[in-house]
Amino acid sequence: MRELLRNGSFMRLFCGRLVTNAGDSLYYIAAMWLVYQLTGSAAFTGVAGFLTTAPSAIQFLFGPLVDRTPLRRVLVGTQLAQGILVLVIPIAAALDALSVWVVLTVMPLLSLLNQPVYPAESAALPRIVEREELVEGNSLFALAYQGADAAFNAVGGLLVAALGAVTLFLVNSLTFGIATLLFATLSIPAAGTDNDETKQTATASETAADGGRPTAANDSPASYLADLQEGIEFLRGTIVAKLLVGAAVVNFSIGGVMAVLPAYADVLGGASAYGLLTAAIGTGMLIGALVGSAVRRFPFGRVVALGMAGSAMLWVGAVAVNWLPASALLFALALVPAGVTNVLVISLVQALVPDGLLGRVTAVLGSASAAMTPVGALVGGAVAGATSATLVLWAAGASFALLALYVFAVPSLRRLPEISEVSTLTAK
Q: For the region Disordered, what residue ranges are annotated (predicted)?
């Protein structure tokens, strides 16, 4: 871990990810609450959740672009564009022109601009750290992701209550500006570079410092489609593809949960309750990310199956108790196994996928795992509007139980050994 923290390129990438995720968390919590505030409708928050998360389903389209475009350019360009776009909402409010339709237009555009970021960061990480440092590096990356979520969801809820949701969009612009500066100073070796000196000390004067290909690439549309197909084919028939089936069920339910959470929290205490509940969810994922490195020595299949079975029981308890402090605690504990699984799966993919394929494989993986989230948000909002938000939360607990049963039922998943002993992604 010390060597990792002394790696200047890693630290700039890590800090950039931390700031970016903080900004993402702030605009998401602000937008969902703002839509609920403007409409008072769980169905509208479901639409907002759908529009915000739907771009994740096409993240795979950015994979080939990430693999053929200098990574620093991708990271800087996306942050700069988001920092400008996010100002539309406070400007509209200042001009007395803010409506739910403005929010519903801006949010998917922000999300779309964010889609190349995670594949680019995932593609950059193996180029700047050693293979044996990948699990620790991903644990820290997951820490940045979930830590920012936990902290800024809590702060965001309080800021919404004290200052108003529009204020958070002004803060967002600042966070994206900081991320732009951090990524602009980042040096990323070219794909295929594999030596300590380059990973530790690559400079901006080198051709590879931008994370581009060391030789000219064929950028024709036919080549793009071939690259995209290669990423999809690589995952076909792998254990990761099988894991995605179970993840789709859970993501459908989580999409519904996040869509109805403003309505659920409004009954329990308003914006401050919303901040506490979203912070609890982020904290659970954060704890899971932190212990992900420690549990890598245990059989992967058992960790996932037993963990998700425990999640189901804890989640049901959180909904049943219906008391904010206890519910928040149980929600947090229920999400710990999800944080563990995220770290282990990402580390597995990065260790076994060639550098030149990693951007498109990561993008396909991200799109496939997230594709059901917007559908869940839309359905969850509609169900909550017709019945209650609580029913959607009960369904999420059932999805965790289904995932546990699925892993137990599929031999190639149930028998997965500890992560260091997995030598191929091919399902057996």
A: 195-218
